[in-house]
## 1
Amino acid sequence: MQIITAIEDMQALSSRLLSEKKNIGLVPTMGALHEGHLGLVRRSKDENDFTVVSIFVNPSQFGPNEDFNEYPRDTEGDLDKLSPCKVDAVFIPGADEMYPEGFSTSINIGNIGTILCGASRPGHFNGVATVVAKLFNIVMPGRAYFGQKDFQQTVVIGKLVRELDFGVDIVVCPTVRGPDGLAMSSRNGYLSDEERKAAPILYKALKFGEELIVSNGIVNAVLIKEEMRKLIHTEPLAAADYVEIVTLGRLEGVEKIELPVAICIAVKIGKTRLIDNIVVEKKQVEDVR
Amino acid sequence: MQIITAIEDMQALSSRLLSEKKNIGLVPTMGALHEGHLGLVRRSKDENDFTVVSIFVNPSQFGPNEDFNEYPRDTEGDLDKLSPCKVDAVFIPGADEMYPEGFSTSINIGNIGTILCGASRPGHFNGVATVVAKLFNIVMPGRAYFGQKDFQQTVVIGKLVRELDFGVDIVVCPTVRGPDGLAMSSRNGYLSDEERKAAPILYKALKFGEELIVSNGIVNAVLIKEEMRKLIHTEPLAAADYVEIVTLGRLEGVEKIELPVAICIAVKIGKTRLIDNIVVEKKQVEDVR
């Protein structure tokens, strides 16, 4: 497993691989790896000749009052997890390597980056788009792997790829959950024991929303969102940031449910903001009826 | 000479060429080709296996009150000029192909895009950066060719390439001028006969500024700019938009001349805004002394 820290070295390696007609798969991460990340890695290993995992806690996607400094960093532990997966290369650039002094370029992804999580995290998705564009140009993958847990991120990156004509296939992999339904997230490590017990309320609320649509046939999105909020707030440690039901492609809020839709939520558990989502497909309703 | 209009077709061709280890040279243009463009084409032909000329009048780099609608378009004439140069492919996408409905991504290049021409053309360089990033991802060149006449543009694109890690070498070619010094520009076609006679005042002013530095040893940039403005306004049809003396890399205005510097000017000749520039090198002064 090669460890690469310089952009130039990564580009040289990728250029060589491409000239040998090797397919490169990229799994971009911020480290603090969990089973969700490792699922992306295994998928990339299956589908490509060469898998690169990038580890970079990207400052430009954190707001001034967010958890950039506290975000968990454990490079050694990450490498110990990646090595048995037979990852080919790990790209771990420093912040100065990615954003040297005087750096001023940013990609503005438009309105799709200012709704949902973008509303409470201004600039977040522009930071994501900028670093992902850089990683695509550095690693030159044919495929890049993202988890569905960050649903809006996958839509933003899909738009980035289409609109700037990157020749990269975006592969979205299902959210990996604990036995109690809590989606894997590096931020779960912030939770106290008590908060950890409260956190599955996100998934419970999502499944409840799904049930209202699929089993109860409710089409009034406002009603569903209200019921979900009520359920979330039965948990004393939980405070909903947003509960939205949106179209898959453009993340437009719907009033009347027409499947497929995504139910997307952000909930604070204590001081920790967690997100999760679930896609409700037309087929699910047809299967029930 | 292949004519390609679809992004997908261009990407397929470029992918095939790269898999055959061919070097691709890109000459991005807005058409209305002149000898300046053809110089870029010949340089690309010399240095690459395959030369692509793109022709696209990019709406996103024109302001609402600018000359997007009037900008000269002559695809047939352009192709007649490119064919004898043995250009390999011409990429001529439609506006809908480049910016389909709902398009919202833009690249913000930062302060370097808001000074000089950017001050009177807000958003111009972000539009340039966005379309050039798209063209790089579509054509996948190893080298791209730009004229020095658009000096700030070459600096903006250099920054775009460095900061988003595009693997493209930017080749800047000398400004091509008429016998009277007027820099070749598609916008010269806007000039009436009388205005055409007035237009060489730009180059005269630049050469005068250069002379003040090189021969007269003047180091006070304010003084030089004042003298240049005076010379420009000896021409009744001319009105200076800006006259600036800047560093080459960051385009920072200098007070005291320390070579090398670029002298950059924008002048309205009647209703037509023309730009030009000259780089004054340290060597020039040493040669004189």
## 2
Amino acid sequence: MADVLKEKHIPRATIQRLATYVQVLEAFTRDDVEVISSNPLALACGVNASQVRKDLAYFGEFGIRGVGYPVVSLIKAITSSLGVDREWRMALIGVGNLGKALLNHGDFRARGFNIREIFDCDPFKIGEIVHGLEVRCTSELPRLVTEEGIEIGIITTPPERAQRAAEHLINAGITAILNFAPARLQVSSNVTVEYVDFFNHLYALAFRHPKD
Amino acid sequence: MADVLKEKHIPRATIQRLATYVQVLEAFTRDDVEVISSNPLALACGVNASQVRKDLAYFGEFGIRGVGYPVVSLIKAITSSLGVDREWRMALIGVGNLGKALLNHGDFRARGFNIREIFDCDPFKIGEIVHGLEVRCTSELPRLVTEEGIEIGIITTPPERAQRAAEHLINAGITAILNFAPARLQVSSNVTVEYVDFFNHLYALAFRHPKD
């Protein structure tokens, strides 16, 4: 089943829903729910039930007709199919407040997303120890990416330094970037960038807010 | 023009692109670019040029045919039309590392998104001063939301406390929530929730990463 998913082109929206299902299924495990049918799962996810059934058809072997899906097995099947049931080693550039908060975000490591190296271009920060990691100069990126087997780069620099940070990561062989800086990155088509953009969300809230 | 936009139903995807245009236009101002045409703007945003022209047709009066858009005026027109050119007062629930990082995120205040009150249910945190704000008990939310004119709530609790935090906010009259907790919230249809979900993005990067 996992292989079926990997071989297909899965739209971004489907990946987003699968990630949401995992989040909600994990909440059910905290409440000791062992089996869940598609209707309550759909309700908890804010997705319609037929969509849930369609998405989970990939994992059909786990469903028991008239009963539902075993929660723990379904989480494992989805995370395995997405390739997130293993360790992913990450490097972070920009050791400011947000960078430090992410370093201390226990959930990352718990889910296998492991920040192994941290970088900054500020000479006053280089050598500082933050949550057990030494802040390194970006010139060391290529060597450390290879030595540590790093696959994902995180950018938490100010916006005007984000493009430079992306270029450091790409030159070191990284093709997957999670960008928290409020800036668009110019990258070649073999590089995947995901944007975590707080203001995009705040703008949406503000715009939809009832006007006075 | 701003009024035209406010009266229409604008899809979420359009708001997202408008927020991106603002971000990219701000980068152009840092490079002292005064006028920009739709092609370079589209390239920098990763959006096709006809889409940019269509989106910016709302702000058509600002464009000069054959020359382009004056950057600063266009930023003002977009932010005004989205209603983000004024102060938005916010309350944050969950004063952990992520909450503290957001409090210290200079960009929020610079863009008018002002965290005015912070809350936690941990008695050891209540009374603590964090970045100049006193951590309050959630029982004080209704009074402070009214007194301070707070319109947006931010949730940075662990996932198992997120629903409770949302209910505190909603009971205090808040209908716009930015949720950083990795949990889906059950809210009535008059409440808007935006999810900032790091794992959703990491899952997408991991899934699209070239497999060994």
